[in-house]
Amino acid sequence: VNDWPPTIAEAGKLIAERRISSRELTEVCLGRVRALEPLLSAFITVDADRAVASAEKADGEIAVSGPRSRMHGIPIAYKDIFKTKGLRTTAHSKLLQDYVPGEDCGCAERLSAAGAICVGKTATHEFAMGGPSFDLPWPPARNPWDPARFPGGSSSGTAVAIAAGEILGGMGSDTGGSIRLPAALCGTAGLKPTYGLVSRAGVLPLAFSLDHAGPMAWTVEDCAIMLQSLAGFDHRDPASADRPVADYCTGINGSIRGVRIGVVRHFFEADVSATPEVCRAIDDAAKVFADLGAAVRDVVLPSLQEWHACGIIILLAEGYSVHEEWFRSRITEYGAMMRDSVAMGAFLTAADYLQAARRRRELCDQMAAVMSEVDILLSVGAFAEAPLMSEVDKWDVFRTPLPTIPFNVTGYPALSICAGYGAKGLPLALHLAARPFEEPLLLRVGHRYESETRRRRRRPDLPSAGELPTR
Amino acid sequence: MDSSGPLMALAEFKSLVKRSGLTLAEAHTEELWKGYNLLRGLIDAVHGSRSLETESAHIFPLGRDRDR
Questions:
Q1: Model confidence at B57, in pLDDT bands (50, 70, 90)?
Q2: Is A156 annotated as catalytic?
Q3: Best interface-test mutation with A: which of B17, B46, B65 has the largest number of A CBs within 10 A?
């Protein structure tokens, strides 16, 4: 497939210079959706007619007064737990298969106000928990690098649609890694912002104190552009941070000389053994950062097992509290993967939850201490290339720690970026994290890595999408 | 299940299911018992020793609660 859409940054320039219209760009994306969805199942709902109408409206606005943001006219999609006015929001579940919200979530309000075009709603693990399920009303999304393989989750569809060029960016949610893990396995960028920076109002909850909403896109720069439209206080989200919004884009090309980067090597070499090629990719990344003038050294945090135990107990307790009523009255309507995972919350005690919350306090203090000595933490986005769909087991989440969950426990901003390709030709990923609200630095470090390594030119080798509209 | 064997006997788990208020088929209960025995290790891990003074964090780790 040669007719890949541009990145958000490129498309924004083309739109501003009137070299491409939003309508043309949206038609490119919809053409790819029509061609590739039978293979990838990234979407639950495609809203083609309204997307084209919105794009034409955007073109009219841009013709009169220019784009009102860098998202104006850009085709995107929302994970299907983000409420969208007049467009069904299913959580990929039989329980909500006919649910049509009467209002937009906070993220959709902000992105719509910025002029973004909603192409549709993307596949997720049911209610953002579980795994690739075949007992739900819609099939699970498939990895565009190899459709037999798992795309990660739970924001699977958004990552797949971006990697396949069906959209330029999209929204995911992240409770234990659900933005960063699919980004890692699909070779996209995915940002879990600082807890409180992006509104979760109107996003169906999984675990209140761990849930984050955030942007996913092909590049780090595109995540920064999306974040610029997304960030800000929302009184409807009780965790929303009332503070000025930073500039995430202007300094993104700046130097990283002198930035202190700590490699959390024990996460992927001792606590869990990543594949040798993943370990090499992190060593290579550390060298890239050092060559750019960063001061790179190893740091030590509590073991990944400790972070994982704390995060999973809190996730299950809070998640079960959300679903308890339906678990007692409609349990047979859930798919097995989500149902059996979240059911574990029914067997936790108040003391289990509060001990995990107390442990969380200690872990947060320990990460803060390490982050007083370094500016960025470097680790892995995933321990290996994507497994086969058939290899994913519902109890995996209790067996192997998630490399991403420490940053849900602390709420620190974290970013997954493509770090090359493994022996099977599938993406590898590195993971960066920063202190709270230091997204400008985090995005700059990630962008400089992408600029140096130039891996964003490689795309999945998808079957021909047929005659696609040209821009 | 881990090779070390179950941390909770099936009969004990069944009483846990009964107390939860969930209505589960026998086979489903046994399936969840496998998962629970994996989860048990995580539960034990958060019950380690810590000082009596360690309070839980705010339910929100960052954001508005911390900004106040």
A1: low
A2: no
A3: B46
Q: Do A195 and B48 touch (CB under 8 A)?
A: no
Dist. CA A214–CA A197, nearest whole Å: 9
Residue A467 confidence (pLDDT) above 70:
no
Q: Is the pTM of this model over 0.80?
A: yes
| C-alpha distance from B42 to closest chain A C-alpha (Å) | 5
- ipTM given for this complex: 0.89
Known catalytic membership, residue A13: no
Task: Give the least confident one: A34-38, A288-292, A300-304, A453-457.
Answer: A453-457
> Over pLDDT 70: what percentage of chain A?
98
Q: pLDDT (tens digit, 9 = 90+) per residue, A86-132? A: 999 999 999 999 999 999 999 999 999 999 999 999 999 999 999 99
Q: Does A341 touch chain B (CB under 8 A)?
A: yes
pLDDT of residue B56: 73
Q: Chain A residue with minimal CA distance to B32?
A: A340
Cβ of B61 within 8 Å of Cβ of A409? The answer is yes
Q: How many CB pairs under 8 A join A and B?
A: 123
Distance of residue A239 Cα from the nearest chain B Cα, in angstroms: 5
Contacts of A196 in chain B (CB under 8 A): 60, 62-64
Query: Residue B67: its pLDDT value, please?
Result: 43
